[in-house]
Write a structure and sequence with these properties.
Layout lengths: L1 E4 L3 H32 L2 H27 L14 H29 L7 H29 L2 H30 L4 H28 L5 H18 L2 E9 L4 E9 L5 H19 L3 E9 L3 H5 L4
Parallel strand pairs: 3-4
Antiparallel strand pairs: 1-4, 2-3
Helix pairs in contact: 1-2, 1-4, 1-5, 2-3, 2-5, 2-6, 3-5, 3-6, 4-5, 5-6, 7-8
């Protein structure tokens, strides 16, 4: 038996709206950074623009994933499409790592073949403006993703914030070049930026793998346990076999309930239903709770002591 608490559909619409905003801003930022690179020839700005190319590709895939994850379960995918969220986060992380490697290779190559920079003042202003816009957008996406429990939106927001810090690093590097006249500051900053976004990409890949492998989040499991324990005493049952996993949108809870043999099946079923609703509501997110009813007295004899 199971109880499902479904999230407010309005949250899905807000997520879709935020993702469309992210895609539109991503294209605008790419155009601005590309113009700044053409004006200056800066390796640091080139690294920032290349990261924006990766970002636009990642956001496009994330938008598709967000739309697909909202589809209900069907005969082909009886457990729904929600796990695309983890694949999307991993795809975005992999693209970030690819961008970081490309930035390092290009920066070193330009350094070895000679540096030539022009119109740095204009380039700095363009990149600084992009940084401010991305900072505001990233904060909005992370905040919205956390509120709606959307790993896709939160991952995209963190990528946007990474882009913001990348742009700020580029600005600092170019200001150092302008202040000192030492051109190698430009590729050095580009390489530092690449290392920073490499760490961000690796973190997203780790989250993706953890989700796809049904990593048991201790914090979420502790919240479920805290909701179950008081009711086990109140409703008169023991429990075991608690398993909690997150699909990217929903939390799935499985638990075995052991009732006294003297309790009727109907009464045990009623108490289990009360527990399911309580756990689902206690988590404050989209939840599916599945319970399995067993007899307390002969449980070991039927299933063996290891169960």
């Amino acid at each position: 038996m199971s109880t499902v608490v479904v999230r407010n559909p309005e949250e899905r619409r807000l997520n879709q709206r935020a993702m469309r905003l992210s895609l539109a801003v991503g294209f605008a930022m790419l155009a601005g950074k590309a113009a700044a690179y053409v004006l200056t020839g800066s390796a640091a700005i080139m690294s920032d623009a290349l990261e924006s190319v990766i970002h636009v590709l990642a956001v496009a895939f994330a938008a598709f994933s967000l739309s697909l994850s909202a589809k209900p379960a069907d005969s082909r995918f009886p457990y729904g499409y929600e796990r695309i969220a983890f694949f999307s986060a991993g795809f975005e992380g992999a693209l970030i790592i690819l961008a970081a490697a490309s930035i390092i290779w290009t920066a070193v190559a330009r350094w070895l073949h000679g540096l030539q920079l022009e119109r740095l003042g204009t380039g700095v202003l363009l990149v600084l403006a992009a940084s401010v816009v991305n900072g505001a957008l990233g904060w909005h996406l992370v905040r919205t993703g956390r509120r709606s429990k959307s790993i896709i939106l939160e991952a995209n927001g963190r990528h946007v914030l990474t882009d913001c810090w990348t742009s700020l690093g580029v600005v600092v590097g170019l200001l150092l070049v302008m202040a000192t006249g030492w051109l190698p500051f430009d590729p050095i900053v580009a390489i530092a930026v690449a290392v920073n976004i490499l760490w961000s990409g690796a973190h997203l890949v780790f989250r993706s793998v953890s989700g796809l492998m049904d990593y048991a989040d201790p914090a979420r499991t502790a919240r479920v346990t805290a909701a179950v324990e008081p009711f086990s005493r109140l409703l008169g049952f023991h429990h075991h076999g608690l398993r909690v996993r997150h699909t990217g949108h929903r939390t799935l809870v499985e638990i075995h309930l052991l009732f006294p043999f003297s309790l009727t099946l109907g009464d045990a079923h009623r108490r289990a239903t009360v527990l399911e609703a309580h756990v689902a509501n206690a988590l404050g997110e989209e939840v599916e709770v599945i319970t399995h009813l067993e007899s307390l007295e002969d449980h070991a004899a039927v299933h063996g002591p290891e169960h």
